[in-house]
Amino acid sequence: MAEDCSFATVRTENLTYCPNKSNVGGVKAKCWYIPMAQLKTITKPTLTQNTPYAESITLTALTPDTSKGFKRIDLVIDENELKSGLVGAKGNMKDQAQFDGMIPNFVKENIGFISRHRNTPMCWVVEDSAGQKWVVLEAYMTKADATTAKKYDENSGTAFNVTANDALWAFDGDIVELADSPAAPGE
Fold first, then answer.
1. In sequence order, which residues have a C-beta less than 8 Å from that of residue 62 and are 6 or more positions away?
2. Which of 77, 121, 156, 161 lies in disulfide reach of 143, CB 3.0 to 4.6 Å?
3. Angle at CA 61, nearest 5°, toward 59 and 62?
4. How many other CB atoms are there within 10 angstroms of residue 46's CB atom?
5. Other C-beta atoms within 10 Å of 173: how many?
6. Buried-state track 103-135, b at ≥16 Cβ within 10 A, e below 16
7. Would you give per-residue pLDDT tens digits along the chain (187 residues)?
8. What is the CA radius of gyration of the chain?
9. The model's pTM
């Protein structure tokens, strides 16, 4: 049977807005990351004609490999942003997700993180100000600028950007955050 490629059967939903409900911008001052190679399970939704919009972008599982887990990054407050957009030509648009973050302080650990993971495909989980977790899969670092800042009262740290040629995904489950292991002698 041939797949119906008609817009006559495409799902539509009302996208209502309640002005009495509190809607705030921004993301919380923390995020989590894990290299894609350390994820055991990523379960995306099965889409049918009846799948609601919200369910169509909600992951049902995000499970690290055994003895692996997400690591947390604390961020500078009010300097981080999550974006979901479209790229491409009219009639051939594709999803793109982007996360801009700023890690506080100009310190060795932060510079080392950027150097180590500049070409690592990562999974990033970012919680918005309302508490919804958003997932950027197969994301690559596209920019990282570390600065001491010029003045005492300016923010020093590393502003970075990660971009994925994929949709932005929602996730309602728990994040398995792995504690740092003590360094072995000589490390």
1. 39, 41, 42, 43, 123, 125, 135, 171, 173, 175
2. 161
3. 95
4. 9
5. 14
6. bbeeeeebeebbeebeeeebbbbbbeeeeebbb
7. 455 667 788 888 888 888 887 777 889 999 999 999 999 999 999 998 899 999 999 999 999 999 999 999 999 999 999 999 999 999 999 999 999 999 999 999 999 999 999 999 999 999 999 999 999 999 999 999 999 999 998 889 999 999 999 999 999 999 989 988 776 565 5
8. 19
9. 0.89
Beta bridge partners of 98: 83, 163
Q: For residues 148 and 161, what is the distance between their CA atoms, to the nearest angstrom? A: 18
Using alpha carbons, select from 69, 71, 78 the residue that is nearest to residue 29.
Answer: 78
Residue type at position 42? I
Taking the C-alpha atoms of residue 139 and residue 36, their distance in angstroms, rounded to an integer, is: 9
Structural contact between residues 163 and 98, judged by C-beta atoms closer than 8 angstroms: yes
Cβ count near 101 (within 10 Å): 25
The two structure tokens encoding residue 83: 């974006």
Tell me which amino acid residue 185 is. P
Burial class for 68, CB neighbours closer than 10 Å (0-12, 13-18, 19+):
middle
Q: Could you tell me the sign of the dihedral formed by the alpha carbons of 60, 56, 34, 41, in that order?
A: positive
d(CA 177, CA 34) in angstroms, rounded, equals 10
